[in-house]
Fold this sequence. Notes:
The complex is a heterodimer of chains A (189) and B (432). Chain A has 189 residues and is mainly α. In chain A, 59% of the residues lie in helices and 0% in strands. Chain A has eight helices and no strands. Chain A has helices spanning 3-29, 32-48, 50-55, 59-73, 102-109, 114-124, 130-137, 141-159. In chain A, helix 1 packs antiparallel against helix 2, helix 2 (32-48) crosses helix 4 and helix 7 (130-137) packs across helix 8. Chain B has three helices and 32 strands. Chain B has a five-stranded antiparallel β-sheet. In chain B, strands 3-4-5-6 form a four-stranded antiparallel β-sheet, with no helix packed on it. At the A-B interface, helix 1, helix 2, helix 4, helix 5 and helix 6 of A face helix 1, helix 2, strand 3, strand 4 and strand 7 of B.
Amino acid sequence: MGQADADQEYTEFVAARLGRLHRLAYLLTGDPHRADDVVAQALTDVYLKWSKVRASDNPDGYVRTMVVRAFIHERRRAWSARVVLTEETPDRAVPPTEIEDANVLRAALNRLPPRQRAVLILRFIEDLSVEEVAQLLGCSTGTVKSQTSHGLATLRRVLGDAAVADIGPGRKEGQRERARGRPEAAPTA
Amino acid sequence: MNEHEDVRRLLRPLDTAPPRPSKVDIGQVVAVGRRLRRRRRIAAASGIVLSTAIAAAAVPVIFAATTPAGPVTAPATDRTLTPTATTDGTVPPEPPAPPTSCVPSRLDPPVGATFEVHDSDSTGRFVVGVGLVDGGVVPLLWDNGQFTVLELPVDELGSSLVVNAQGDVAGSGYVQDGSTWFPTPWVYRDGTYTILPQLDGYSFQEIADINDRGDILGRGYQLDPSNPNARDMVGVVWSGSDLTPRVLPRPAPVWTTVWAIDDDGTVIGTVGTEHRGPADSPDRVRAVVWAPDGSVRDLPAPSGYGPSTVAFSVRNGWVLGGYENPAMDWPANEEYARWYLPSGLVEPLGDQWRGVSDINRHGWYVGQVEVEGERRAAVAYGGEPVLLPPPNGLRQGTATHINDDGTVIVGSLKSESGGEQPFLVAVRWLCS
């Protein structure tokens, strides 16, 4: 296959999946702009490994893996150089029935290290098995389980026991965390 | 209901489509991929792993020549302010004549597509950031044209890197122990990495700045032993001499975010988080100055403005920040300004600024302005903003750092679609 043909094949393949890949990246980042950056990085990696991707048993899975890994390795951009480690976080614990605001959940998830965040999203929103997540992240199933446990424990601390009651192992942490958001006057693009 | 279903139910609100479709241009991805492939082949053939490489798209441009036909500045408004009177007759020193032209060049790492600038020092010699190589993040120190890969003492890089005029680099990260990740601030100086000490009752997490005498400014949580879940953010300074941590006193028991430290130890930051609500609420965000003598005071807005104020950068007594215009609704009510601490002077920067990032010892500052619908990198020498000429193939972006004499400016520009470009390009302007 010549380079022009390979490029055409690649273009058609990723163009057909761009929407789904962007959705996955948006799930992981919570931000459409960052999602674009993650997808662009992943698709660049896919381009460079296209011969391997097209020869693999599961090109779709391969490409999704690249998106997740691009997210895990993503670092904040110069555009957001003034963003603090804790962005908008809930200032009170809320029971599960009141958690309708995705922003509250997003803020809680944003406090997790990237791998833990990816594990929770892949397992509980993308509905992948422990084995599939382990394969995707290149780690053991034991690591996936422990990161799931730790991620849920952190969510419990941030959201409060009422919101995350009865899920996962972990200690009852007592009262809610009082956390507040960052000033929004940061100069960003 | 089992655990899996419970968590699914909890996280369900996140399972929504993005608010807009992807803007990724696949043709551009292919173009970038081709360029990277060529570069790797060249590197492989020559045995080069990392070496100096600044893709010079250097085209000398006189500032005036870059000014579009229309006015650069926004239309005049009736919101002009008179700077507050100085209380002691102190006036800022007269700055030298500013540069009149700047030459842009790209800061491309020799391997990989992107170099994300995090910080540059007061001389302009050093730049730190991360490169994206083979899908992985590589922390990089750029020293006068030479890239060095930093081998960090952490398992995963955390927040931004910072650098001072001595080439000391500080940052944070995570050290993994089993399934637990421990926030771990560190500093690299004199060829050695040192994990910054923690204090009982606190968890220091992130680095904000480092000054030229080596004092390191960080952020962390104050923990409440009676309530493991109660924590408030505080500022901390590790002494440049012995790295002893000192927690900054808070003027009120509210969330505190430190931003920058001057060479004399002055720290600026914000306390509170709310931009709306009662003006006298302790949660109203306001800029605060921690003086070297230990005193803490507010950075006041001009009469008729406020009460919310913010501060981002400090250098030689100059502070870059902004204040609230109560006649506007949040978030459009933010107006950028600079203060001169020795005199109390405060000056509005003008409506055209869309972001400001850094101020130097003469009070010159850089950021982003809006001109004819475009967001452009710009510098100001105390007056109107001046557009910085982009390298070929780039256009919009922001300037993020300016050195002390104004001869070096660093920023990030977004590539236009269709070109053989990474998506975000680090740019360095040499000005004279």
